[in-house]
Amino acid sequence: MSGSGKTVFVRRLIAEMLRLLFPCLVLDIHGDYLGFVQKQKKFFPNNKIKLFYPKLSINREEFFL
Known about the structure:
Elements: H1 6-19, H2 35-38, H3 40-43, H4 60-63
């Protein structure tokens, strides 16, 4: 249900895992967790946080087969 705190819970869970230097993989299609990258140097200096933007493309002809 919207507004129930799912994203807040996951942010706290990821933050704790990063503090413990536990490896994480986050697939974030909505950009809800970009704050971890922005605050990496201040809050998570011992972690290597990387962004990956895959180049996704589709040919119009392939789409309408």
